[in-house]
Amino acid sequence: MCIFASVMLQKYVGIVLHTVKYNDKANIVHVYTEQSGRMSFLIPAQRSRKSAVKQVLFQPLSVVEFEADMRPRSGIHPIKEAKAWYVFTSLPYDPYKSAIAMFLAEFLYRALKEETTNIPLFAYLVHSVQWLDVCETSFANFHLVFLMRLSRFLGLYPNVEEYSSSDYFDLLNACFVSSQPYHGMFVRPEEASHIRTLMRMNYETMHLFAMNRMERNRCLDIINEYYRLHLPDFPELKSLPVLQELF
């Protein structure tokens, strides 16, 4: 019996994307794991000091290490033990960082569907979460840079070769073009330049690129529209207006 149980239990490290009520006793938590991509697990709904699985561990973008009972022919697996793989220093306590985390967790929950191992993507997500947590100032452009760089891992990074300042950005075909596309899904040259600027940013240099709130929110609208065009069934995000109010 003990041998059988040890075979069923597997250890994972993952990033929390979304939690939803399952019944009165359990919640379903969706996690992007290092080992197997996106997976779904059960955690206790009620808080208990004696529980080996604390609800507080499963906040948006938390990085957790846990052991789950991998039952055959089940898509939702009970978590038996869990602990923080990375302990936050500021992200849950800073309202601006928390708003970014809520938005990005919802975005990733909708965008990441594959149940396969993707070590480079997982490493990028963990690095990004840690960077945001320890950053002290000048992170207003973080979510924009995160989403642009995420597109590389999803095979959606736009073609930026031969860009000219007079080019339109064709959202449908993911490239800059010299003439206005016949379809209506494009960005005019004066705004397309902001997209090109975002592609040059990284976390260390993004503070050097000044944007006001209107420009930043317009860029976010464009990026969101771009993903909605290229990801099947990508919905409107509830946390988007909240983030745009803050940044």
Automatic annotation (TrEMBL):
What broad taxonomic lineage does this protein's source fall under?
Answer: Bacteria, Pseudomonadati, Bacteroidota, Bacteroidia, Bacteroidales
- Residues crossing the lipid bilayer are none
Question: Which segments constitute the DNA replication/recombination mediator RecO N-terminal domain?
Answer: 10-84
User: Which keywords are on file for this protein?
Assistant: DNA damage, DNA recombination, DNA repair
The name under which this protein is listed is DNA repair protein RecO
Is the keyword DNA damage assigned to this protein? yes
**Source organism of this protein record:** Phocaeicola coprocola CAG:162
Free-text function comment from the UniProt entry: Involved in DNA repair and RecF pathway recombination.
Specify the superkingdom.
Answer: Bacteria
InterPro entries named among the record's database cross-references: ARFGAP/RecO, DNA_rep/recomb_RecO_N, NA-bd_OB-fold, RecO, RecO_C
Q: Name one GO biological process term.
A: double-strand break repair
Matching entries from SUPFAM superfamilies are given as: ArfGap/RecO-like zinc finger (SSF57863), Nucleic acid-binding proteins (SSF50249)
Q: Could you name the Gene Ontology cellular component terms for this entry?
A: bacterial nucleoid
